[in-house]
Design a protein that fits this description.
This protein is mainly α and 257 residues long. The protein contains eleven helices and no strands. The model has no long low-confidence stretch (mean pLDDT 83).
């Protein structure tokens, strides 16, 4: 009902004065109904939580419409939070094992960042667009952090190690893409530093499973190879010294470790 009121309020925003008061009331009422319905549904112990997912989906649509028709950064963040809730409950409906949530978070982060890049190209007189882009980017970066941290936690469990490794690897890839999109060398440093963790954990597990003699020595060799690869990539990025210097720095630290 709240979403329908939002649609009606935005659809007839330019209606005559005698209708505007009614539409204004519908708009304000929708802002009350949407969060109330979400909070009510959260308290319901229903399995599978299909109703929860739909409630968050309608909330996402409602807040997105409000953000477009009645520009406000609050509506933007509300829509983003609701969309994350939609995905979270969707994963529970699909009964996806929790160890893969880190992977989903890393993928979803990239989706938000790409949407932010598309939003940035919208030609409009409104000055709210940069704020929306910032909100999308912040949400994406938070999800990258969640994906990296939860991936590391899952990798500590031998039965969930590979899911955690994939989640951390995708988070590192996200940061590398951010370095390319935003041209910020901090993301370069973060990406290549983070990648060391899943690389070392994966090779360590592989050497252990294959029962290689002296696995720690072989892991040292593998990390040395990664250091050499970083130095090669840094040499290939000589035209962008601001990024190359971090690759050289991380490569030399690995080589000396």
């Amino acid at each position: 009902a709240g979403t329908l009121m939002t649609v009606a309020a935005s659809r007839f925003a330019k209606a005559k004065d005698d209708v505007k008061s009614l539409l204004r009331a519908a708009r304000y009422l929708s802002q009350i109904l949407i969060p109330l319905s979400v909070m009510y549904v959260i308290l319901l112990p229903i399995k599978p939580p299909t109703g929860h997912m739909l409630a968050f989906l309608f909330a996402t649509i409602g807040y997105a419409i409000l953000a477009m028709q009645f520009p406000s950064i609050i509506f933007a963040y509300a829509a983003l939070a609701a969309s994350i809730g939609t995905v979270a409950y969707g994963l529970r409906v699909a009964e996806l094992p929790t160890e893969w949530y880190a992977t989903v978070a890393s993928i979803l982060a990239l989706v938000y960042i790409f949407i932010g890049q598309r939003t940035q190209r919208i030609k409009t007189e409104s000055t709210i667009i940069p704020s929306y882009v910032k909100a999308l980017n912040i949400t994406g970066l938070l999800l990258i952090c969640i994906g990296a941290l939860s991936g590391f936690i899952f990798s500590l469990d031998s039965t969930k190690l590979w899911a955690g490794v994939i989640g951390m690897t995708l988070a590192a890839l996200d940061l590398a893409i951010c370095a390319y999109i935003f041209g910020n060398s901090f993301y370069t440093l973060s990406a290549f530093s983070l990648f060391i963790l899943p690389f070392a954990i994966a090779f360590g597990r592989w050497f252990t499973d294959t029962k290689v003699a002296q696995p720690l020595s072989w892991l040292t060799v593998a990390i040395g190879g990664l250091a050499f690869a970083y130095l090669l990539i840094g040499a290939g990025l000589r035209k962008t010294q601001v990024h190359a210097r971090w690759l050289f720095a991380v490569g030399h630290v690995l080589a000396g470790a």
